[in-house]
Structure formats: C-alpha cells, structure tokens
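Morning!

As promised:
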Amino acid sequence: MFNGENFGVIGGPNTKRGLVIIPAYNEQEALPGTLADLRALAPEFDVVIIDDGSSDDTVSAALRSGAVCIKLPFNLGIGGALRTGFRYAVDNGYTRALQFDADGQHDASQIHALMDALDAGANMVVGSRFAGVGDYRVSRSRRIAMRLLRWSIRRLAGQKFTDTSSGFRAFDAPVLHLFANDYPIEYMDSVEALVMACRAGFDVREVPVTMHERAGGQASNSHLRLSYHYLRLLVSLASTPRRKPTRKPADAAGTIPS
Amino acid sequence: MSNRAHVALAILVALAIVGIIRLVRRGHLKAKYSLLWLSLGGIMLVIAAVPGLLDWTAERLGIYYQPTLLILLGLALILLIIVHFSYELTLMESRIRTLAEQSALLQHRIACLEEEQQQSQEEDDTDGDASGAGGSTAG
C-alpha cells in the first residue's frame, strides 16, 4: 500500500532520528566532501542544507549528493539560515538537531560525542576547540577579543565557556523550539545564541572537539568588520532579556508535538 | 524675529504642508507617516502665525537668541521622526526575514509534495489491478 514511507521527512514522526543542519553560502567546493564525510561517519542522521542565497553552485552540489536542500530567496546571513533549519527541524518532528559547518572545519566523527552529552541530559551542547583536545590556532588580536568576550559572557550566562563562537553544536527539542522562533540574525550569532539559551534556563554544556582548517570558501576576517560586529555584539548582549523560565527544560520535552 | 521672517516662515511651511498633502492624495505617502510631518508643519505654522509666541517662550526658558528655540524644536521633532523610522525599519526587516525563511520552507515542501504525488500516480499506473506489496521497489 502506498504511504509516506519514503517521504518520512514530510510531517512524519522523526522522533528517533537526528537532523544535521548545514547553513551554506557559496560552499560548492567544500560541501560535497562535508556531505560525504557525514554519510560515512554519521549515516543515521538526516541532513538538511540551507542555501543562504548562494551565487555559485551550492544548490546543485547539495542536490547531487541527495541531501535535502532548502533555498533561501536571498542572503539572510548565517543566523537566518540557521533559524530556517531549526524551523524545518521542529516542523518535521525532529527531537534533536546538530549545527554543522559546510566548509569542512568540523569533524563528522565527533558528532557522537555531542550526542552523548545530549543523552546525558544537556539541552544544548557546544563543541569546543579550546577545552583540551585539538591544535586549532587563532591570531593574537582575535584571542584577546575572544578573551574579553568570554568574560562578559561568563557574567551574562552565569557559566564558563571556553569556546563561545564554535558553530559545532547540538540541540534538543525545547532548545530547537526556542531557536526556531527566535534566533540572533547577525554575524557572531553563535555567541548571542549561547547567552540566550543560558538565560532561558537551559542546561548548556561543552564538549572538547578538534577542528580542521577550512577546506574552502572564505572566512570573513577584515579587522574593521570584526570590530564593528564586536561592538554590535556587546550592545546586543547587554540587552539580552532574561526570559521567564516559561519552558522548563524537563517538562517541555513532553509538550513537543510529535 | 522680524515680521518679514515670520511671513517667510509661514509661506515656506504652508508650501511644505500642501506638498505633503499632495503626496498623500496621490498615494505616494502613507497617511500614517504624513501625520508626523503634518504635525511638525502645524507647530511651525503656529509659531509663524503668532509673532509673539516664540519670543515669549524663549524668554521663559531663558533663551536669549529666540530663533535658537525654533531650530531646537525642529531638530528635536526631526530626531523623533528618525528614531520612529528606525523602529519601523527594524520591524520591517524582521518581517521580511521571516517571510523569506517561510517561503523557502514552503517551496521545499511543495517540491516534496509534487514528487510524492507524481510517484503515487506512477505507482497507480504500473500497479494497475494488482495492489500487492511489490510497488515498494519502484523509485
């Protein structure tokens, strides 16, 4: 009998499966390798690629590898792409999702380390470059800026993090709900999201990971741009509302529609 | 200010008000926004029409050069209007973003539904009368 079996992605219950969300902006070179890694090392996960208005062949690269690809009509920035991914995860009933970079700097074999932390009761898990493992290097000025940022985040979040800008993260259903409705849209969204989750009362943990050098694409590293975003971030962080804990992490898991 | 200055101001403000009203009537400006500018014009018009008003108010506030009050008042209102625009712009941007995200998700959903429909049609064609379990290998 014909049923939606092979189309479980659409509105079907995906309570057992996890989703890997990959925001991609002009990543046609790196994306196929990243997707191949995911399929080899984390085959039990569904993958959705959010094409953030790329001008290159990102979309066909994604489709060629058989992944689900959602194409934004114009560039929204990584925050907008991620929120689309979170919305997709919630709409399709996924109870856990991963944020993963298209450019190949994250290691697919370490997905399970993040998932283990979710299993251990965390609502959100951040893969940290600086929590022990790995040999990732950043420039000195960036390190100083990151240190200052880490201090203000520690005050706002009430918790210590070693890698606030890591984009290698895992989320459970209540956090997905929060971020599907409200996710920081500007550059350095990851830092704001971290503070948001902490202030909403979620259990956020870090897991040490190694990261690779970027396989392709361009990192946005102009000093002026970085300074601007840094200032904007400080203003934004200072005005992050402390949410009422309307959604208790423990209870919320039961309220998610399947 | 001299009487001549008052007359000049009144004429300028009246012209500006007429201009705003014309924009609204042609549909180039929303009535909502015209209200901001019209109220600014209204205040200016009162100041121009009542010669003693500006001088009297300036004296009460301890402002010795009366036109300063005019400039101060105008500037304050313009800043208010600009802040209001930033507010509207923020709202609009967030709405557009949400729409863009939704349209992308819907587009994908439509594509999936179409594929599903096509597949079910194909299955109907190939299966014909035999509604067995063999159709699962089709794809």
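The first helix of chain B runs from residue 3 to 25.

Hope this helps with the figure draft.
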